[in-house]
Amino acid sequence: MDANVVVMGSESVGKSALTVRLLTRRFIGEYGDIESIYSHNFETDGRDITLNIWDIYEDLSVETSLSEKKIQWADGFILVYSICDRASFNIVSKLIQTIKSTKDYLNTDKVPIVIVGNKRDLHHRRTVSSEEGRLLALKADCLFYEVSAAENYHSVLMVFHGLVDRIKDTKLALKRPSGFKGIVKSMSAVFARRRTDSF
Ligand SMILES: Nc1nc2c(ncn2[C@@H]2O[C@H](COP(=O)(O)OP(=O)(O)OP(=O)(O)O)[C@@H](O)[C@H]2O)c(=O)[nH]1
């Protein structure tokens, strides 16, 4: 399975640090203004996953046709803020709205989004509590993690694994009509066939 992932958030929250941590297991400190697509292969539940990660430098809270293209390209989103930067947390809510209004999800309301509070190691400078992050995720039906790209590889790995699991579920739900909508769809397919049969 291929999964396109966009990493978004305000400036300097650690988007590149998270991406580079996943790819190399390292934290190198300074990353410059890079914007690239990286590919990374891993296995989950016996399935090979190719993750295409787009690390976005541009501020996507300002709507442009390019940002719309990026949103359409993505199967899932990692929205990063810094626990020491309240403005970066506020931008995450705006990004969720932009994504949910832009992305055309046909049958499902569940957009695979993970909210990440980064720089957990700087807890003495914290201005956004864990509860606020968790509450936002709960309201928007997203996953939530607090991590330190600087200090910990495993929590970063969990972020990407969590997102891939959600992407898998969404892709499966899109393939197989399920629930009430799916039943209505299958019934109308049967009736449509009957109607054409009778002519
Ligand atoms: N203490 C601490 N610093 C971090 C952490 N993650 C990133 N940084 C630092 O925060 C700064 C910004 O990190 P980047 O990864 O470049 O952030 P970015 O969001 O990609 O930044 P832009 O590309 O400029 O938008 C760098 O100085 C990093 O070393 C972290 O978990 N803890």
From TrEMBL:
One of its GO terms (molecular function) is G protein activity. This is small monomeric GTPase. Belongs to the small GTPase superfamily. Ras family. Pfam families: Ras. It catalyses: GTP + H2O = GDP + phosphate + H(+). It is an enzyme of class 3 (hydrolase). Keywords: GTP-binding, Hydrolase, Nucleotide-binding.
